[in-house]
Structure formats: structure tokens, C-alpha cells
Design a protein that fits this description.
TIM Barrel, two-stranded antiparallel sheet, binds flavin mononucleotide
Amino acid sequence: MEKMKTHYLGLELKSPVIVSSSGLTKKIKNLVEAEENGAGAIVLKSIFEEQITYESNKAIDQSHHYPEAADYIRNYSKHNTLNEYIQLIKDAKKAVNIPVIASINCVSKLEWGDYAKKIETAGADALELNMNVFPFNPNEKAQDIEEKYYKIVESVKRNTNLPIACKLSKNFTNLPYFIQQLNFRGVNSFVLFNKFFEPLIDIEKEEITTSSILSHENDLKISLRWVAILKGMMPEIEISASTGIHSANACVQQILAGANTVQICSVLYRKGISEIKPIVNGISEWMNQKSYKAIDDFRGKLSYENIEDPTVYERFQFIKHFANIE
Ligand SMILES: Cc1cc2nc3c(=O)[nH]c(=O)nc-3n(C[C@H](O)[C@H](O)[C@H](O)COP(=O)(O)O)c2cc1C
């Protein structure tokens, strides 16, 4: 469908609907099914530096009689996991014609550039940096944490020419400033936002338990507001909206707010990969009803800079005048 075409990360996508990174995107048959059902691109499951470190530490623990083997095991585990990922990229590129975006989640700035170089060589079309440096140190300033992100991005940019997107959490004191700083360092595309593991407490057992890791339709709102604000403030950046997008309606809302693409995950866990088709068709039907001939015809129509009263995006408090409720 010509009218569904869009651009993201320097790539032409046949639809704005991207399958986001998860366990679903490490299986080749799922990638093929996603393409058949109209996905515009796929983000592969992230390769986690922490997972590599964990695997190698486990192997080292098991070989405690041979301490001299630790370095060997560490390197072997790292290369083995990286090689498996490289193979996944190569297999994905053979299996589908839509763009394949690799994803890395590293914690130390040294490793990022190295991984990125290998991923580029393997043939990925672009790279998503799944970034989260969590603030667990009360003596560390916010600025110092943000510096870590900048160092990571600089290291990746030095090592690869791949187009890069940063996938971020919503938890920054001044998100527009932070995004602008990343943009100054050569990142033009942002995935907003990632969703994280959230512990709960079982009050009967008095134990930590886990909430559902899948999102709900209501989770759309945080990202929707920030897509509209950021796209309005910085029209030159690209945003791939993520979290809580479960329907064509949600995709259209995000594109009206200014998103270049939308990413879906939980809805595919709940309903299956074939759910991409009604979502893509639903966007197309809405465009027909509204006589839009291209995605660009309505992208950003309701962003912060394009609406009469942009303060609707600025209201955070439920004061009576705006919320119409005591
Ligand atoms: C089981 C599962 C595994 C995930 N794994 C990754 C991952 O490896 N890398 C990543 O960047 N995001 C990962 N995510 C986050 C999703 O890509 C997505 O950002 C998040 O689920 C919010 O989108 P949704 O509301 O459409 O689910 C995972 C999500 C789920 C549910």
C-alpha cells in the first residue's frame, strides 16, 4: 500500500508499524509472519551485556577448581553469545525483506562500540540502543548519569555508521534538554518509551511478586504527551512511539501527535503476530475515511506546535478549572 509508506532511520518502511524488541523477535518464523502481516520493520531481541556477564560468571563459578580458566571462559561466553546474535541478524536478513533493526543493551560504555561494529558487519539495517542507567546511588548527580548516556552514544557513533535510535525511559528531569543533547551527538531517532520490570508485593505471602510485564491500552498516554511535546519542540527529530499501542486507533493518535513510526509488542503477545494486519488495515481505513493520501498528510497535525492551545500538553495537575471535577 503506497499510502502507508514512511521513513525512519534513513530507511523506507512500507508501513509505520514496527514490531518492537522482545522474545518474539528472536524467532525467525515470527519475523516472517510479521512481514506477511504488514509490519514495516522489526527490532530484534536485545543482546544484553548483563546476560553475557551473568552467563560467564556462572560458568566461572562452576569451574572454581581452575581459576586460571576464568579469563578464557569470560571471553568464550562473550564471543559465543555475540556470535549467536550475529547469526540471528544474518538469518533475519535472509528471511525477510523489511528492515531489520538490531538492539543492544549494554551497561559499560566500553562494550557498546565494539558490539555496534560487529552488528553493522553482520548486515543489520540500523541499531536501537536500549539504554537505561538507573539511579541507585544517592551520591551520583543526575548530570553524571546523563553523561554516561552521552559517552555510550559517542562510543557507538565512533564505531559504526549505522543509523541509530535511542530507546529511553520517561524518567528524566528535563527530557527535552536530554534529547537535544543526544541529538547534538548525532542521534536523530528516539524510541519513547521503554517499559520496565515492575515489582509488586503479595500481602498474603509478604513477598515480592511481579506485575504483568505486558502493557495495557491505558499506558499509551505518557508516551503520547511526550511525542506531541518533543515533536513540536524539535521537528527535526524522529520519534518511534512505544508502550501501550494496542490498536489502529492508538497508532493514529501517535502519528497525529507526531510519531514517525509506532512500535508494538504486548498486543502481539496477547493476540498473536497476525494482529499486525488489522492494525495496519485499521490505519489505512481511517486514512480513507479522512481522505488522507499519505502518512505525512496527518503526521504531527496535533503536535505541541500545531494546535491552537498547546498548554493542554503542559497541564499536569488536576486543578478544577481544567479537569471539571472537584
Ligand atoms: C517479554 C518482553 C521482552 C522484552 N524484551 C525487550 C528487549 O530485549 N529489548 C527492548 O528494548 N525491549 C524489550 N521489551 C520492551 C518492548 O520492546 C516494549 O518497549 C514494551 O513492551 C512496551 O511496548 P508495548 O506496550 O507494546 O508492550 C520487552 C517486552 C516484553 C513484554
